C-alpha cells in the first residue's frame, strides 16, 4: 500500500485562497476534489471526493490547535489513526463520526477507491463563542488528544439537510445566508446527539419486550393503572431501566403515554355521541368529571361539552 504525505498533497493547498481545489494528487495516485465554504470565522464546511487507483496511507502533519469535526461519509470507507496512542477513528459509508482533535499527528488510510465525505470543522475560538456549555465544558478538559465522541448511522434529517446544502440554487448573499442557516441546523442536530447519548442506556431484546409488556399493562388498566414500582416488578425490570427505557423507546414517560392514550380514547367516545361526559370520565379512570374536563382541555384546548355539541 502506498504511503504519502498529506502535507505534500492536500495541506499544501488547504489554506490557499481558492475555494475549490481539483487534482492536487499526482495522476498516478488518482483524482481528488475539495470544496471549501467558510461560513464564519472558525467554521468551515468542507466537501471532499477522492477517486483513488489503489488504497493508500496519507500521513498528516501535526495539528497544533484544537478542532471539533463532524464527518458525514456518503461513500467509501477510511480511517484516521493517531500516532501517539494508535487510537483510530472510523469513517464509514452511511455513518457520521464526531471527533475532537488536539495536538494530533497521524495518518489516514483510504480503504476504498472512491471516498466522498462532508466535514464541518469548528476551531477552538468558534466553539468557545457558541458552544461553551454544550461542548467546551464537557469535552475540552479531557486529557486525551483525540476523542471519538460519537459514531452512528447518519440520520435522515441530516441527509435531508445535506441535500438542501449541496443542491442550493441560490446565488450571492442569499446563497450564503441559506447555506449558513442549514449548516447551523445540521450542527444543532448532530451536537444534540452527544447529550442524548449520555442519557441513553443499552437495551437488549429482553428489555425491549419487557418495556412493550409494561406499555400493554398500562393500556389494559385505564381505570386503575399500576404504580411504577409495581409495573417494574411485573415485567422484571428495575425502576430506572423501565423509566429510561420507556423514554428511549417511546419518547415519553409511561404515565404521559397513558394520559395521551386516555384522552384520545375519550375524544373518540365523545365524538361517537353514545356516551355522556360522566360515562367517558369513569371509563378512562376519572372519578370526578371536573378532573377529566381539566385534563381533556389541557390536551386538546377544547372542553368535552363542546365536542358533544358538534
UniProtKB/TrEMBL annotation:
Superkingdom assignment: Bacteria
Presence of the UniProt keyword Transcription regulation in the record: yes
Keyword terms: Transcription, Transcription regulation
Pfam families noted in UniProt: HTH_18 (PF12833)
Record-annotated HTH araC/xylS-type domain positions: 212-310
One MF term in the entry's GO annotations: sequence-specific DNA binding
InterPro entries: Homeodomain-like_sf, HTH_AraC, PchR_regulatory_protein
Keyword Transcription regulation: yes
Protein name, as recorded: Transcriptional regulator
Annotated source species: Malaciobacter mytili LMG 24559
